[in-house]
Amino acid sequence: MASIREGFFVPLYGATSKKPVKVNTFSIDVFPVTNAQYLDFVKKNPAYSRSKIKGLFADKSYLIQWESDFNFGKNNLNDAPVTNVSWFAAKKYCECQGKRLPTMDEWEYVAMADEKRIDARAKENFNKYIMSWYEKPKTYLNPVGQTFKNYWGVYDMHGLVWEWTSDFNSIFLSGESRKDKATDKNLFCGSGSVNATDLMNYAAFMRYAFRGSLKANYTTKNLGFRCAKNK
C-alpha cells in the first residue's frame, strides 16, 4: 500500500461550493485487485463465488468472464484487474483484508496526481491522457502496473479500469458535505455539470457520471476496485 498524507482539494463535482475538502492521512493499494487475488478470496469465501452469490449482492454478470467458480480460465487474466465485481463483493473483499473501499474524495485526491505533481488537473496533457483512455477498448484485459506511477507511488488510477468507491452514489446527495439526505436528481443527466468547479474538465466529470449510474449490485466488464486503510 502507498501512504497518502492529509491534504485539501476542491472536488470537481458534488458540492455546492468551491470550499476545499480535507482528506485525512490514509493508505491505498498501489494496484487494483487482480483476478488472482480475488480468486484466493473466493476460495476462502465460497458464498461469493459466481454460482453461489445471492442476486441481492450481485447481478447476473458477476465474474462472467471467469470459466467457472474457482477458475478464471486460460485468458491470461492472472495479473489483470478483476472486473464484473459488485460493490457488495468489493466491500467484502476489502474487509477480509482488514481494509475498506476508499471514499470518493480519497480516490479523487490520489487520482489528481501525475508523476510529479499532487494536483495535475490543470495540465492539458494530463486530461488528454485520461480522455484518450476512455476511447481505448478492452484495457481491462491489461496487467496491472503498466500505466504511469503517480506522485504517491500509485499505479492505474487512470488507463486501466473504473473503480468502486465506498460512497459511489453520494453525488446524488445535495449539500456542501454531500452527507445530508436530500436527494437532488438534477445533479445527474441534463444538468449534471452544474456543480462542476471546472466545467471544461470532462475527463473527471465522466467518472462522476459513471458512478452516478451505478447500483451496488451492478457489475460491468470495465469496473474493478482497490482497497484503502486508515492510518
Q: Give the SSE string.
A: EEEEHHHHEHEE
- Distance separating the two termini: 11 Å
Number of extended strands: 7
Q: Order the strands across the largest sheet as they lie in space.
A: 1-4-7
Residue share in helices? Answer: 10-25%
Report low-confidence residues grouped into runs of 5 or more.
Answer: 173-200
Structural class by helix and strand composition: alpha+beta
C-alpha Rg (nearest Å): 17 Å
Mean model confidence by pLDDT? 85
Shape call: globular
Largest sheet features: 3 strands, antiparallel
Note the beta-strand portion: 5-15%
Number of helices: 5
Please provide a brief summary of the model.
With 231 residues, this protein is α+β, with helices and mostly antiparallel strands. Helix content is 22%, strand content 8%.
Provide an overview of this structure:
By secondary structure, this protein is α+β, with helices and mostly antiparallel strands. The strands form 3 sheets. The protein has a 3-stranded antiparallel beta sheet, with no helix packed on it. A two-stranded antiparallel ribbon has the order 2-3. Strands 5-6 form a two-stranded parallel ribbon. The longest helix has 11 residues. It is globular, with a radius of gyration of 17 Å. It starts with a strand and ends with a strand. About 12% of the residues have low confidence.
